[in-house]
Every structure is written in C-alpha cells, then in structure tokens.
Amino acid sequence: MPDAPPLTEAETLARLRLARSRRVGATTFHRLLAEHGSAAAALAALPEIARAAGAEGYAPCPEGVARAELAAGRRAGARLLSFAAPGYPAALADLDDAPPLLWALGDPALAARPMIALVGARNASSLGLRMAQRLAQELGAAGFTVVSGLARGIDAAAHEAALASGTIGVQAGGIDVIYPAENTALSARMAGQGLRLAELPPGTQPQARHFPQRNRIIAGLARATVVIEAAARSGSLLTARNALDYGREVMAVPGHPMDARAAGCNLLLRDGALLVRGAEDVIEALGAVMSAPRPARPMPPAAAKSPPPGPAATDAPARVLAALGPSPTPEDALLRTLGLEAPVLAQVLVLLELEGQVTRHPGGLFSLG
Amino acid sequence: MPDAPPLTEAETLARLRLARSRRVGATTFHRLLAEHGSAAAALAALPEIARAAGAEGYAPCPEGVARAELAAGRRAGARLLSFAAPGYPAALADLDDAPPLLWALGDPALAARPMIALVGARNASSLGLRMAQRLAQELGAAGFTVVSGLARGIDAAAHEAALASGTIGVQAGGIDVIYPAENTALSARMAGQGLRLAELPPGTQPQARHFPQRNRIIAGLARATVVIEAAARSGSLLTARNALDYGREVMAVPGHPMDARAAGCNLLLRDGALLVRGAEDVIEALGAVMSAPRPARPMPPAAAKSPPPGPAATDAPARVLAALGPSPTPEDALLRTLGLEAPVLAQVLVLLELEGQVTRHPGGLFSLG
Asked: Region labeled Disordered — which residues (chains A, B) (predicted)?
C-alpha cells in the first residue's frame, strides 16, 4: 500500500470507535465513511442518524473503550491495520464488506504476495491432511502465501506445511485468543514466521457467529479458495460461497462419493468448481491471472469506495427463498416470478444449495430445505 | 426394430461373407452396402474393387466359411443380428462404424430399453466395486439396462448387481469364448437372464486389439457411459472417448487424487465429464433426454446409411499429432496451422489427452506423449 497515506492518530481512533459502535457492520462502516468523508465526521453524525432512525439514546463506542482496545492490541504485540491505510491487505480493498480494521501479528508483507486459501474439515482424514500438506508445500514453493483459519485438521496441516514459505492465519476471535488450544504452539510460530490477522478486538472469545465473518476474510485475501475435504454442510462451503461472491476462483479436491468427508467437495465440483489433483492444477488455473501484469490500480481512498450492492443483488437470495416452498418448483417458474436474469438466478440457487437452504431435484426443480 | 423387414437368408449370408472379407471393416461394410444396395451386389463387386486398388488375387470370404460360422453360432445357441434388421439394437444404428453383425445370446429386448454403460478397472478397489454394485442396482431399478464388458472387477460387479433388472455383456471374442474364465458362471447366467453380444465369429479368442472394438459397442449402446474407477491410461478411458465420439454422455465417479485408481476418472471430470455421486446424478442428467418423447425415427434402410465422416473429421487427430512435437506448442498456433475450427481442435486435444498421446501444459500448450 505504498500509495496510501498513513492515517492520523485521531482518525485511527475515530475509525476504531466507528467500527466498534453498535449496529455498524463492515458494509455500514464503509457507507458512513464514504458519505461523511472521514470516520471522525461519521462518528459525529452517528447519534443524529440513529435518532432519525428512531433509536433513542444511541451512543457510539466511547473513546475510552477504543483506547483500551489499542492498548490491549499493543500489549499483544499486534499492529492495527486500517482499511486503505498502509499495511492493509490490498486484496481486501475491493470487497464491499472489507474489514474496517485488522489486528496483525507477524509479517504483513506476506499479504502482499498472491495468496491461496486452503480450507477444509476439522475431522479430516489422513489422506486429506496429506493433501493439505502437499498442496501447501508446493504452492508455497511456487510463491503463493497459504491462507487458512488456524483451525484443527486441514487448516493446521496447511499452516504447518507452509510456515517456511509463508502463511497467514485468520482468527475468528481476538488476536491474543488462541482457539483451539492445541494450536497454541503453531499460533506462536505463525506470529514469528507468518502472519496472524483478527478482525475482532483483542480478548474476544470466538463464538459460532464469528466464524462466517472470519471465513469471508480468508476468501477475500485469496485469489483462489481450495476446499480440500468438506462434508455436505460445512463452514468450508460457506468460505467457498464467499469466494464466489467476491469473484474469486473456487477449487476443490475430489473424493470418493462413499466418503462423507468428500461430499462438500464433490458438490462444489458438480456446481463448476475446478477439480484439483495437485498444486499444478491450481497454478495452471491461475497462470493467466498470475502472468498478466496486475493493473496499476492504487488503493482507492475511502471516500471513493464503491457503494454497497443495491437491493437487486443483495435481495436475490431472500427473494428466491421466499418464492420457494417444500414442494419442488421449476427454475423457469422462479425466473418468471422473480424477474431475475437467468445467470443470476442460477448462481443464487447454487449458493443456496451450497448452504443447504435449497434442494435441487431432477428436471430443474427446487424446493426449500 | 418393428419397422425393418427381415433379411432374406441369401442376403444374411452375403452380409456375413462381406463382413468377414479381408480389409472390410465396419465403416467399409456400410459404405459398400450403401454404394451397391445389397451385400450380395457388394460382394460381387468386391474382387473388381480390390483389383482396381492394386490388390491382385483378392477373394472375398468363401461361402463355406460363412456357413460354418452360422452353424457354429447356432450350436452355441446364439442368434445373428444384422445391421438394420429385426432384433438389431436401434441404439447402434446411427454409428458410422456400427457392427455389421452381432451374435446374441439371451434376450435382445434388453437392448430396446434405455441403456447405461458402467465401466472401470479390472483391479478395482472395494469402494469401486461397491459403487458399481450400487449404481447397477439403482439404475436397474430405474428402468435402465446396464451394459458392460464382462471383464473382471467393475464390469463383473455391475453385471452381477443388474442381473435381476437386466444387463448386457459385450464380449471381445466369440460369443462362446468366456474370458476371463472366472466369469464362466456369471456368463452362463447372463445368457439366461440377460444378454450377451459378440461382434466376432464364434470360437474367436479375444486378442488385445479386439478390446477397443468391443468398447465402442458398449459406448454405442449406452445413452451414457459412467466410468467408475480407472487409472490414467486405461481401456475405460477409450470407452469414454468412443462415447464422446458418438455424442453420448460421459460421466465419472470422482476419487481422491492420491488414489491412482481415480486418476482416469478425475481426468475425465477435469475435461468436462459429469460428476456422479450416485444413481440420482445419472438419472437427473438423463432426465431431459428420457422424459422427451423419442423422435419417431424408423431404422434407416441400409442403403440410406449416412456416409462415413469425411477426411476433415477423421483426419483431425492424425493431423494434430503430426503438428505436435516434444516441445509444447500453443493451441492458438495449432489452430492457425491446421485450419480447424476451435471447438473441433479442443475436442480432438481432449481425446488425444485421454489416450495419453498428448500432454497438456499450463497456459494452453500441448506436446506429444
């Protein structure tokens, strides 16, 4: 991020307060920043905005809370990376829900290299673990930084194998909260040789709802997300969905259909994910991307951030769900009812199928559940 | 084949002699039949045609040899099915190299139902064998006849599991030559409950060169060929190539990349074969085909058989091989050099890759071997 000017200390504090204020998610953060030009201005406007929306007595995050977080982060040895400021991963800059802030422990330069996410099951098979190790080593040797989630199983195997070449672990809780405990030693080495990133404040214990938020950062960092082993309804498939949403490549390692741990991967493959037999397949698929010179696109200033997607795009999944019932409905009928474009509907159906919210029946029929 | 009139005994004998004459392969057989209107007329013209082509002393298959084959077939209890005559499988009628004759033992009506080929490795894994059994049972229950090659491994498992619902075994040698010997009991039950087909004369011991010929019949009978488990360079991939050539569906069961027995299937999947997790996937993919009323296309009379493909189509693989060398050549360059249409070249490259004659490199480059 050599082009972006560093933020003032006041603006950094204001950003932290804005990001930590109730009801201000990542997308809202960017909209407020774009509308008001700075976090300080947005923060000043926030109580009036809340009042206009009928929320009496709304107060933004107090300055003391933000200062305490800054102190806690520094005690953990971490550095705060602000959206569009120096050190912030350029790969995340395009995302409508880019993390406003990231706590970083380790070498932020690892996020400046092309990244591949390797994700998969916690209860992976030995074949799956070996595949994760082999892919991580070979992709590392080819110059890619390996991104994963510091979980048990596939994640840990991938990080371990890529420690020497470069790896980033994205944490669901605070940067100083190691989960699971068995990854304590690995996490310490990641901070020394690799990079750990956490969106939530130091000290945050990871909750179930935090993992999908973490997964979007993994998908957003990586040019491609490779699912190595995953059951039919698993977090790895949500990461794959994020990657699709972000226009990144989704790839999957096949497995035998009688192995339940391959069900998620095989589902992705049926839905068009690239089949990965080894690192060469990943590298070949990204070859065109990698060899093309990266467009010289400087980090956009925060105020020029593209607006969040309009209702047409974001509403589509909800509208499709509303149009479906327990008995199968033809895709054609959905097209007519919803007035969506066919490719949009097809993609939404794939995503909902991935999430297990929709079932695909023979003959182009779909039902809920 | 209710619309096709039965052949006279004399024409049946002439067809057998024509088909068994030296240098008359299936494609030549159909061309001669189309040019001369009947096998008897083609047979009469054959010595003159050979002389004009510089082959002195050419004699067609003697009548005695053909009569001896008819007698041997009857002794084996088999029935001779002639191209475009009653009992001949309608599924084969479109093929440029449709077998001129088939010896049949069992119930020819099984070939009048929609058929699925299940093929795969002789040295299959236990997972592969279970998959073959399960697919055969479920596809049989759904009304499909299961076609395979009566070989060890996947073939035998598929036949066994589909005996009750209906299965066809296509033999590489003569109808009365059981190979491998361990399938003797299965072969006997196939003749009783199922159907066995053989293109070569009774008594023929199967040779290596006969298996690709047999494989084309398997692919030609079936609406879809499902490869259940196959190494990278295996006969099952040649059957898949035949299916592609015939415009039929190619499907494959995925396996873990670290299992060498999955390499062929994963290669097919990368090249666009449909991923099969179970019988539902096959049935769903064929759903549109199956539910559409079959066009009321009567069996074409032999004389109206479409001509064999011209040099443009048949030469393409040889021309591509001639244009390639050991060092990688871009697909673009091949396009310009050969003047083929891009989709044609792409398909030829996939086929040659399947056969192991061509290697695909990153960046759209190809080399021999």
From this structure: 293-315
Measured in whole angstroms, the distance separating CA A63 from the mean position of its chain's CA atoms is: 28
Q: What is the pLDDT of residue B355?
A: 60
Q: Which two tokens stand for residue B305?
A: 């058989």
Q: What angle do CA A178, A184, A185 make, to 5 degrees?
A: 150
- How close A109 gets to chain B, by Cα (Å)? 28
Is A240 within a domain? Answer: yes
Largest CA distance in chain B: 59
Residue B180: CATH number of its domain: 3.40.50.450
Is it the case that residue B92 has pLDDT exceeding 80?
yes
| B67 and B124 fall within a common domain | no
Domain residue limits at A316: 309-368
pLDDT digits (tens, 9 = 90+) for A84-129: 999 999 999 989 999 999 999 999 999 999 999 999 999 999 999 9
Judge whether B3 lies within some domain. Answer: no
Whether A255 sits inside 8 A of B254 (CB atoms) is yes
Q: Mapped to the 3 state alphabet, what secondary structure does A166-196 carry?
A: CEEEEECCCCCCCCCHHHHHHHHHHHHHCEE
Domain count of chain A? 2
Residue B352 pLDDT grade (very low, low, confident, very high; cuts 50, 70, 90): low
Average pLDDT, chain B: 87
SS3 for A263-306, per residue? HHHHHHHHCCCEECCCHHHHHHHHHHHHHCCCCCCCCCCHHHCC
Given this model, what pLDDT does residue B97 score?
95
Q: Which helix (H) or strand (E) holds A218?
A: helix A210-221
Q: Which of B262, B291, B320 is the last residue of a domain?
A: B291
**Same domain for A225 and A143?**
yes
Probe site for chain B from A134, A229, A275 (most B CB atoms < 10 A) = A275
The answer as to whether B303 is a domain residue is no
